[in-house]
User: Which sequence fits this backbone?
């Protein structure tokens, strides 16, 4: 396991994080505890959860594991999130000071800890002034209830605006952004990644395997069946079978990933995870697993370092398509200039 600083903080975290959205839903408590123990044994130390994961059950499962593993409780860096509704009241959602205080208190109780190392706002809230949200987060840092804060699913302008307000007001600065990022989903490179780099923050990519598509377990034009996410629900959200199967780009990427995997004698998932881990600004890649076997396979990617040639092949085949301006080739070329001048 490699270790990197948590964004622009001084805390060190493993470059592979454990996502726990499956806990209490696709993985029962015994399996979840086994996954946590396997992850810890492999040297991992960043656990990512959220209050809405299985309506709080994920945090409760983690809390009970921490209680029975006091040594790991001291070693683990805990990350959670708040923003989405946990109740039916009009104020049971959003990034208001009122809701975030309630959400943070509840997460601390479920996890059985007195502070959360990284508290993330789960998504943008158009109704709450950023000054209110950032003021609460800064207070929580000062009070010691959270160590750092970050954002999840923010756009480039939202992140930059938040950073500037925090700087102007003398608040603690955000350290991380948690975006969706994989060989299949690279649109964040147009604006969000540059914003993260400009702010000196780190990224915690989620869904690095594209919801299972980059494991090599699916076959072109053959609808999946059996005990896989798409096998159980082919219409599953962003990962829906029909939509991605119809895109030639999907299969070009998968063919390249599996080709490199065959050449290196590793699983396709290792190649996909190693590509994400090697990208600029990435602090830790969030692994999601419903079984110990899935986790073991994902953790094995820690030993794989892709060559420049392999990274280039993957970059080329997965390159997102943008119009000329401002994100296409002409626009990108005009963002730099030669020091010596000239045409």
Assistant:
């Amino acid at each position: 396991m490699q270790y990197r600083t948590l964004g622009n903080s001084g805390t060190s975290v493993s470059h592979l994080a454990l996502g726990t959205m499956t806990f209490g839903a696709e993985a029962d408590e015994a399996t979840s505890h086994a996954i946590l123990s396997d992850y810890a044994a492999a040297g991992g130390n960043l656990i990512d959860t959220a209050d809405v994961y299985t309506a709080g059950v994920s945090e409760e499962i983690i809390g009970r594991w921490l209680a029975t593993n006091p040594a790991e409780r001291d070693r683990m860096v805990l990350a959670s999130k708040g923003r989405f509704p946990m109740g039916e009241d009009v104020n049971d959602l959003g990034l208001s000071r009122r809701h975030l205080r309630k959400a943070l208190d509840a997460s601390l109780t479920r996890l059985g800890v007195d502070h959360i190392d990284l508290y993330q706002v789960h998504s943008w809230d158009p109704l709450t002034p950023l000054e209110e949200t950032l003021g609460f987060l800064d207070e929580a840092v000062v009070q010691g209830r959270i160590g750092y804060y970050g954002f999840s699913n923010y756009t480039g302008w939202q992140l930059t605006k938040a950073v500037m307000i925090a700087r102007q007001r003398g608040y603690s600065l955000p350290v991380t952004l948690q975006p969706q990022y994989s060989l299949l989903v690279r649109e964040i490179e147009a604006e969000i990644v540059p914003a993260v780099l400009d702010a000196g923050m780190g990224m915690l990519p989620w869904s690095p395997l594209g919801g299972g598509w980059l494991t090599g377990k699916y076959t072109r034009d053959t609808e999946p069946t059996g005990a896989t996410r798409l096998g159980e629900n082919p219409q599953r959200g962003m990962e829906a079978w029909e939509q991605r199967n119809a895109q030639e780009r999907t299969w070009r990427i998968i063919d390249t990933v599996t080709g490199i995997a065959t050449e290196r004698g590793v699983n396709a998932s290792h190649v996909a995870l190693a590509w994400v881990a090697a990208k600029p600004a990435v602090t830790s890649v969030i692994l999601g697993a419903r079984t110990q076997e899935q986790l073991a396979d994902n953790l094995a990617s820690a030993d794989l370092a892709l060559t420049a040639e392999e990274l280039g092949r993957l970059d080329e085949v997965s390159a997102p398509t943008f119009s000329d301006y401002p994100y296409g080739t002409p626009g990108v070329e005009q963002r730099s200039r030669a020091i010596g001048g000239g045409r």
The longest helix spans residues 248-264. The CA atoms of residues 212 and 228 lie 8 Å apart. The beta strands are 3-5, 12-14, 16-19, 46-48, 77-82, 116-121, 146-152, 176-178, 202-203, 285-288. The mean pLDDT is 93.
